[in-house]
Amino acid sequence: MKQVKTLLWIATLMWGTLLCAQQPSAGASQAGTQPQSAGKRAPQARTQQEFDDYNKAYALSGGAAVEKAANEFTIKYPSSELRSYLYSKAMHEYQNENNPGKMLAMGEKVLVLDPDNPIALVLTATVLADSLSDADQDRDQKIAEIKKNANHTLETVDSSFTPPPEASPDQVAAYKSTLQSMAHSALGIMELKTDDNATAEKDLKLAAELNKTQPDPYIWYHLALAQDHQQKYKEVTYEERRFQSFRSGHRTLLPTSGAAGARAHS
Q: Treating both helix axes as pointing N-terminal to C-terminal, what angle do 118-131 and 2-21 enclose, rounded to 10 degrees?
């Protein structure tokens, strides 16, 4: 899960800001409307009591507490537009607690309510890719879900994200490119684990190119593995150096350049 936490920290920081910024105002819980930026309309409470209960639940911290509050809110307001926000908050809390199983479960609840939610799509794809193994009884199902969620992120990121009014164009562009990077990274890790090394290399290169502002060293790590499996040892050495410049204490994780390294990670 270390790779997931490293991969997601940029999006998590911005995600928390965006969730809070998109909470409906008190005025939005009344009959009136509020101006919206281009993109998907932000959810709104139907009554002041619903809005107050939502704010009370949203203010909690800790994955279990927020999940419980989200479940109780859903029972009380079964048609509320705000349900997905509370499950998104629970997903965020479980991510902070390094609990991938619960993070996945909350992400799936978000997607039932909001199938185009880019954060839930990319987080579920990333958790599934990170945990994918040959021993999985549902391996084919996981692979299909990774592909579906990662590709849907790429298809809908422009239309499914409504930026807060104070977000600058550069911030919006950085947010979207981070989500795209994470989606390509999830695909690349899945492809690496299914021995589609050439495609993995392409997706991981795209992931690295899309995330130059705050580079993620684990993208380079997995890219080095994909290149090592193809015996591209010159490229492996380059990715090794980039990885080590950020994670100097993890040399043992990297493939050994040359045939021995290729055998070790085949």
A: 170
Residue 165 pLDDT: 72
- Cα 209 to its chain centre, rounded Å, is 17
The answer to whether residue 114 sits within a structural domain is yes
Q: What is the mean pLDDT of the chain?
A: 80
Mean pLDDT of 215-238: 81
CB atoms within 10 A of CB 155: 13
Task: Answer whether residue 30 is part of any domain.
Answer: no
**The predicted structure's pLDDT at residue 253:** 40
Q: Quick one: DSSP state of residue 250?
A: -
Q: 216 near 239, Cβ under 8 Å? A: no
Cβ proximity of 184 and 204 under 8 Å? yes
pTM strictly above 0.85: no
pLDDT tens track for 12-71: 444 444 454 344 454 444 333 334 445 566 778 899 999 999 999 999 999 999 999 999
Tally the domains of the chain.
Answer: 1
User: Is 234 buried (19+), middle (13-18) or exposed (0-12) by CB count in 10 A?
Assistant: exposed
120 inside domain = yes
The answer to whether position 73 is within a domain reads yes
Contact 161/39 with Cβ under 8 angstroms? yes
Q: The domain spanning residue 62 has which CATH number?
A: 1.25.40
Question: What is the domain extent for residue 10?
Answer: 2-24+44-171
